[in-house]
Amino acid sequence: MNAEIISVGTELLLGNIVNTDARDLAVALSELGINVYWQTVVGDNPERLSAALEIARERADLIVTTGGLGPTCDDLTKQTIADFFGAELYFDRRAETELREFFAGREMTDNNLRQCWLPVGCTPFYNTCGTAPGCGFRAGDGTVVMMLPGPPKELKAMLDHGGQDFLRSLSGSQIWSHNIMTFGMGESAIEDKLRERMNALKNPTLAPYAKEGEVRLRVTARASGREAAEMLMAPVIGEVRAVLGDIIYGIDVPSLEAVVLRELRARNQTFAAAESCTGGLIAKRFTDLPGASAVFRGGVTVYTNEAKMKLLGLDPALLETHGAVSRPVAEALARSVRETLGADYGIGVTGLAGPDGDGLHPVGTVFVGLASAQSVEVWALSLGERSDRARIRALAANHAFDLLRRKLTGLPLL
């Protein structure tokens, strides 16, 4: 099945907001085995939306729209689509009930009820975190249409609560997938190791997707149900594990830091971080996770030598002799933050994110220290002179989390 995403909203065209809906939808559709061949953005204008629909139905089996389902006069998506495909609308009483519950204790203006009108015969997707319901239906010409709200939180929730089930129902078989998450090897190297197998596979399929410093391998199977799909995917996942080994940090896990959180909680252990070049990124990413407070003692951003001395007691002679970007300083940061904050493990990061070097090391040089009660180990990383600051910092944080993952699970420390 081939799909086109039509994002509706003048604010998208003007650049007032970034169109993350199209990205999230493309990921969700591709994971269901649906090809996304076209993406279109139109303003809140019924004539231009109708023109986009005319083009889309000629080249796509599935049209998914986002935005324009709200209560205001510029929310014209639903009526425009209904008029274009000749779909009659009905008033959905469940949508009304949930809308009134949403506004309980507050005044609800009558224009909100416009959101309760849906195409006859559609599959409603009721909104679990907003007001406008979405829906899916098959038009008279055979085109499948899905209408989803524009707010990203509502769109994602609606996909989880009805949207994906509707998409799976479009064919006799269903699509299921698993994501194999890796860190420590580039996309081209992974593809070289798995190319022959990937090219030979038909069902399931195996495809690599590069992230920032990581590679995600998606295994996708088409089957009559989940159990049958899992039986198809299991041997492929086993083969990938055999080839890639411990660079795989998890299956269907969101991030390296999420794995670290899980492993620390399982062991009832804690860690703390002293960050220079990463500027608090390790602490930020980790504390974005629910439950981080159970295992994260705290982070210290020691961007200058003065901060390293005053906050963590580093010896001025150490900094003078070796320089801020050095193995001894990374070791001292890791040891000091562990002891100062009373953690089981301490991470210390120092390096050069650019654009300038220090006269001794090129941009992209980073030292990561990992301290425990028994030892302190330091890794020297060369993250690329041509990398920008954001990439170097992100990669340094990834390496720090991966080193802690390896330490916790007894894997070789790369």
Can you offer a commentary on this structure?
With 414 residues, the chain is of the alpha/beta class. The protein folds into three domains: 2-168, MoaB/Mog-like domain (Molybdenum Cofactor Biosythetic Enzyme, Chain A), CATH 3.40.980; 174-251, Alpha-Beta Plaits (2-Layer Sandwich), CATH 3.30.70.2860; 256-409, Maf protein. The chain has helices spanning 10-13, 20-31, 46-59, 77-85, 93-102, 152-168, 187-200, 226-244, 256-267, 281-287, 305-312, 316-322, 327-341, 389-409; strands spanning 2-8, 35-42, 62-66, 89-91, 117-119, 123-125, 134-138, 144-148, 174-183, 205-210, 214-223, 248-251, 271-275, 296-301, 345-351, 365-371, 376-382. Helix 3 packs across helix 4 (77-85) and helix 9 (256-267) packs parallel to helix 14.
**Class of the largest domain, according to the CATH hierarchy?**
Alpha Beta
CATH names the topology of the largest domain as Molybdenum Cofactor Biosythetic Enzyme, Chain A
Number of helices: 14
Rg for CA atoms: 26 Å
Low-confidence stretches: none
CATH architecture of the largest domain: 3-Layer(aba) Sandwich
Helical amount among residues, as a percent range?
40-55%
Topology:
Elements: E1 2-8, H1 10-13, H2 20-31, E2 35-42, H3 46-59, E3 62-66, H4 77-85, E4 89-91, H5 93-102, E5 117-119, E6 123-125, E7 134-138, E8 144-148, H6 152-168, E9 174-183, H7 187-200, E10 205-210, E11 214-223, H8 226-244, E12 248-251, H9 256-267, E13 271-275, H10 281-287, E14 296-301, H11 305-312, H12 316-322, H13 327-341, E15 345-351, E16 365-371, E17 376-382, H14 389-409
Parallel strand pairs: 1-2, 1-3, 3-8, 13-14, 13-15
Antiparallel strand pairs: 4-5, 6-7, 7-8, 9-11, 9-12, 10-11, 15-16, 16-17
Helix pairs in contact: 2-6, 3-4, 9-14
